[in-house]
Design the sequence.
């Protein structure tokens, strides 16, 4: 059955890639690229590409037992895929076609996307789980596009580079959303005695019904945190304090991802292994990275933000002291009954500080963009 499904998927994928790209790339992209840049062409064709499949998404969103009944849980993953993944992927297709002038490359890329997703995700992921998987895929694709655009890799204009950089900064403000969603799912699943979400997924929530939903949320949060750090460390915002904040943000994203990876490798039944040691090292570095990220905020902006930064640092130190006291009081329990609460509080203190800094720097960059446009027009 898997072999048969694979043959059908590849046959359908290459047929779709061949015939669709005769229209999308050979005609639409070829006509538009003479009037627009790569980003503009890709967005226009990508949105049309997604809209073209909208009826298919509606038709495919019926309940199995009631073919005429519309199912929102079946429609949501397809909507995310067609509205978020396809436009981003089309930009990459346009870039490849621009670089190679080879329509066959676009056909192969189209076919690979069509064939790989059913084989990788279906039928194991459906409904909300599939939607979250598509969300992670969309974040990865748009992250690559934003970074490439901000560096001028897509022959992007100055305005497009500034907008891409602004998008990277806004990632900091949005990174709190998937983290809050994961906490809600953790609370709903009654996961106790775990130090952080990544450990909860594997150790405490092993076999839980919503474990597959928490994982993509944590991955999305880590990706957004890293993208925020990349945005701070590049473009017109380069200053030494911001570089330190960027290093701390990227470090926290990588550290959280490493903990998640080590938690998946960890068996959860033995202790004292090198996996435990590595995980302990990464977990102990969180408070240091958090203070490294927040500390330079005292000299980034005016006195109001400096005071706000000092308050955030004080709260982080208080959280670390309370967590250490609680851990020493429960030496036999490495996590302690309240440690999950302290971990979440400390992370939320940092994330709300990132939220404020992200909005502040994005507005500052927007002001520079407006000034540049005004000077150009005058």
Sequence:
């Amino acid at each position: 059955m898997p072999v048969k499904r694979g043959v059908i998927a590849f046959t359908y994928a290459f047929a779709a890639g061949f015939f669709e790209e005769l229209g999308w790339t050979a005609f639409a992209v070829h006509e538009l690229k003479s009037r627009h840049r790569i980003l503009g062409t890709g967005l226009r064709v990508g949105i049309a590409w997604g809209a073209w499949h909208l009826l298919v998404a509606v038709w495919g969103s019926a309940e199995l037992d009631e073919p005429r009944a519309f199912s929102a849980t079946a429609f949501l993953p397809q909507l995310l895929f067609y509205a978020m993944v396809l436009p981003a992927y089309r930009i990459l297709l346009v870039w490849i076609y621009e670089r190679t002038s080879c329509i066959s490359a676009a056909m192969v890329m189209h076919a690979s996307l069509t064939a790989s997703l059913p084989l990788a995700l279906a039928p194991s992921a459906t409904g909300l789980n599939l939607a979250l998987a598509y969300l992670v895929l969309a974040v990865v694709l748009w992250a690559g596009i934003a970074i490439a655009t901000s560096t001028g890799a897509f022959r992007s204009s100055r305005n497009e580079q500034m907008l891409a950089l602004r998008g990277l900064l806004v990632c900091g403000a949005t990174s709190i959303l998937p983290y809050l969603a994961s906490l809600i799912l953790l609370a709903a699943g009654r996961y106790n005695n775990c130090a952080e979400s990544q450990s909860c997924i594997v150790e405490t929530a092993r076999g839980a019904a919503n474990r597959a939903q928490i994982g993509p949320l944590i991955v999305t949060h880590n990706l957004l945190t890293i993208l925020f750090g990349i945005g701070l460390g590049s473009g017109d915002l380069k200053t030494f304090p911001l570089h330190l904040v960027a290093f701390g943000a990227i470090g926290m994203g990588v550290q959280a991802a490493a903990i998640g990876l080590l938690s998946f490798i960890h068996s959860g039944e033995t202790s004292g292994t090198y996996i435990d040691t590595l995980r302990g090292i990464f977990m102990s570095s969180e408070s240091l990275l958090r203070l490294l990220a927040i500390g330079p905020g005292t000299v980034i902006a005016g006195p109001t933000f400096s005071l706000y930064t000092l308050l955030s640092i004080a709260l982080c130190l208080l959280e670390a002291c309370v967590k250490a006291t609680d851990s020493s009081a429960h030496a036999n329990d490495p996590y302690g009954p309240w440690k999950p609460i302290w971990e979440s509080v400390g992370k939320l203190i940092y994330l709300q500080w990132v939220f404020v800094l992200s909005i502040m720097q994005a507005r500052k960059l927007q002001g520079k963009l407006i000034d540049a446009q005004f000077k150009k027009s005058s």
Q: What stands out?
A: The chain has a mean pLDDT of 77.
